[in-house]
């Protein structure tokens, strides 16, 4: 038998909805041709890849550069890219993996 303390919920379907986490991704929409080299260098620094991989990502814009960021981290990356002459946007993505994990775990122990 499970004993609940003050402030704890009994679980259920609503608990899974609370466990959902909002994550953000940075998408490079386009860039100015004159700023291409600067943008490639910045993309390389941001995502930690080699020069060739960064160049491939920049050239195939629009593309998602980095996922799983907090809002603050994403805004910082977007500002840096936009200052260099790129058109980057911050997109919201809802991750339901934590809720799926906790829902399945809850059903196993109850």
TrEMBL record:
Keywords: Hydrolase, Protease, Ribonucleoprotein, Ribosomal protein. It comes from the Eukaryota. SUPFAM superfamilies: ClpS-like. Signal peptide: none annotated. Gene3D superfamilies: 3.30.1390.10. GO terms for molecular function: mRNA binding; peptidase activity; structural constituent of ribosome. Residues 24-90 form the Large ribosomal subunit protein bL12 C-terminal domain. One of its GO terms (cellular component) is ribosome. CDD domains: Ribosomal_L7_L12. Coiled coil: none annotated. It holds the Pfam family Ribosomal_L12. The keyword Protease applies. InterPro entries: Ribosomal_bL12, Ribosomal_bL12_C, Ribosomal_bL12_C/ClpS-like. One of its GO terms (biological process) is proteolysis. This is 50S ribosomal protein L7/L12.
């Amino acid at each position: 038998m499970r004993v609940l303390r003050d402030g704890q919920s009994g679980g259920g379907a609503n608990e899974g909805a609370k466990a959902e986490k909002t994550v953000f991704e940075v998408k490079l929409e386009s860039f100015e041709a004159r700023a291409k080299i600067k943008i490639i260098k910045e993309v390389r620094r941001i995502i930690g890849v080699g020069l060739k991989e960064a160049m491939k990502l920049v050239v195939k814009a629009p593309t998602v550069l980095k996922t799983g960021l907090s809002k603050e981290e994403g805004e910082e990356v977007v500002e840096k890219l936009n200052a260099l002459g790129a058109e980057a946007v911050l997109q919201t993505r809802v991750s339901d993996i934590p809720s799926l994990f906790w829902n399945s775990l809850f059903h196993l122990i109850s």
